[in-house]
């Protein structure tokens, strides 16, 4: 009411579902941001042995399930996909397995390299756990002695199994805080590096009408990616300026990739309908449609448990 033309910048997950809910159910102009594409750029740089700043890419898809449609050398214009496929075949299969293995398989199967990495891409693929050694360690706890829902203690998140190699067997006491007389912690100019977060640059572009190209933002599709619903929130490049954010028109993705993403669009729609209609049945439809869903009984139990534990913040969903 106070600022109807303002933009809401969302960083929270699940990115696409949240932004789509906001844009479908309200008049708020909302954009979702994620730095995952820069993780993909770093991976491309490692395979190609070319600095990431020398790579010019175009990518689109779904948040945590994006695909590089083109990879070129910024200075020569050379198409680097043939070189990427050649060097990927030469690379050690087990190198950085949790981060790269699933992406490498998808490149071989679909011809495009995905981003950001197995831990996120696997959110949308039923068979992804076979390529994530740390899958069973994520948020691990012993149910004999721990109950996170009752204690509020969230188990540790393990992004990669390789990160546990240097983990000490026993936790050490934290270092004492600096005394009042000690100099405060500070970084030198040489130690500062760009974060790739674009929230502030977007604000600057809109507030001062300073045009800027953005590699990846989450916005309603509106025909930008052929074959996907107009209202579905997708991740794609855009231009920011004083008039707002303008998605870039993209080439079609391969049919199999398009269908995997389109399925998620149906799930988004069912979740929103479940909220509006206060329907556990609609929510169950969404859960059962997801490729990574648990067995039917577990899905029903999960919905009932969630509605009970989060009844203070959720509408009263009913069967």
From TrEMBL:
The keyword Membrane does not apply. It comes from the Bacteria. Its cofactor is NAD(+). GO terms for biological process: carbohydrate metabolic process. Substrate binds at residue 13. Residues 60-293 form the Glycosyl hydrolase family 4 C-terminal domain. Mn(2+) binds at residues 34, 64. Binds 1 NAD(+) per subunit. Keywords: Cobalt, Glycosidase, Hydrolase, Iron, Manganese, Metal-binding, NAD, Nickel. SUPFAM superfamilies: LDH C-terminal domain-like, NAD(P)-binding Rossmann-fold domains. One of its GO terms (molecular function) is metal ion binding. The keyword Glycoprotein does not apply. Belongs to the glycosyl hydrolase 4 family. This is Alpha-galactosidase.
């Amino acid at each position: 009411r106070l600022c109807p033309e303002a933009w809401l910048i969302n960083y929270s997950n699940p990115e696409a579902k949240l932004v789509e809910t906001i844009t479908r159910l309200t008049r708020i102009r909302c954009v979702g941001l994620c730095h995952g594409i820069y993780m993909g750029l770093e991976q491309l740089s490692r395979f190609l042995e070319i600095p990431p700043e020398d790579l010019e890419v175009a990518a689109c898809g779904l948040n945590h399930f994006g695909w590089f449609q083109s990879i070129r050398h910024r200075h020569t214009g050379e198409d680097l996909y043939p070189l990427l496929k050649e060097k990927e075949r030469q690379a050690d299969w087990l190198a950085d397995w949790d981060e790269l293995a699933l992406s490498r398989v998808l490149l071989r199967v679909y011809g495009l390299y995905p981003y950001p990495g197995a831990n996120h891409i696997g959110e949308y693929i039923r068979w992804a756990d076979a390529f994530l050694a740390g899958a069973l360690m994520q948020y691990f706890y012993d149910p004999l002695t721990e109950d996170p829902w009752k204690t509020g203690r969230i188990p540790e998140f393990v992004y990669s199994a390789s990160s546990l190699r240097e983990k000490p067997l026993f936790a050490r006491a934290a270092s004492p805080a600096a005394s009042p007389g000690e100099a405060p912690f500070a970084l030198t100019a040489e130690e500062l590096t760009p974060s790739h977060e674009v929230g502030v640059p977007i604000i600057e572009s809109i507030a001062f009408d300073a045009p800027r190209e953005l590699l990846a933002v989450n916005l309603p599709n509106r025909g930008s990616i052929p074959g996907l619903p107009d209202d579905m929130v997708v991740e794609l490049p855009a231009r920011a300026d004083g008039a707002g954010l303008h998605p870039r028109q993209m080439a079609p993705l391969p049919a199999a990739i398009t269908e995997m993403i389109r399925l998620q669009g149906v799930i988004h729609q069912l979740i929103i309908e479940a909220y509006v209609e206060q329907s556990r049945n609609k929510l169950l439809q969404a859960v059962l449609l997801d490729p990574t869903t648990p067995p039917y009984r577990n899905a029903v139990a999960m919905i009932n448990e969630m509605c009970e534990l989060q009844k203070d913040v959720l509408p009263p969903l009913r069967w």
